[in-house]
Amino acid sequence: MVSTARLLDTLGGKSVLRERTRTYEAIIDRVRAGLPYAALEAVATRFEIPQEALVRVLALPLRTLARRKKERRLRADESDRLLRLSRVGALAEEILGTREKAAAWLRAPNRVLGGPSPLDCLDTDLGAQKVEQLLHRIEYGVYS
Questions:
Q1: How far apart are CA 26 and CA 20, in angstroms?
Q2: Is 61 helix (H, G, I), strand (E, B) or coil?
Q3: pLDDT, tens digit, 9 for 90 and up, residues 13-64
Q4: Within a domain: 144
Q5: In total, how many domains does the chain have?
């Protein structure tokens, strides 16, 4: 499991979330209330995720994304999908060692996943679980 500190850093840190959030329960409360739009921008920048991939993974049409940017807040369901992306990205960064390696790995096609990139699998919870399992296999040195 990814530490709360790493997860918060992935979401943009204190500059985005504005308050001290040190527990998973506090993060859950923030997600239920809706994360700030700046958290989405922080994740996209951190892992070099193009806008087309971001709208696909988060299931947000471009017009809705523009509206959320204007409102400066995501809805709870959108925040939950962003948290899933952040969690997997943070895990990849932790296991692979650097943000750059994690970003490249997330975007590259993966044979173990059947061809699509790990990022393409993050639009569903089961897909995210497959990606997390693959990362743990890499962590423990299982041929992947």
A1: 9
A2: coil
A3: 887 877 666 788 888 999 999 999 999 999 999 999 999 999 999 999 999 9
A4: no
A5: 1
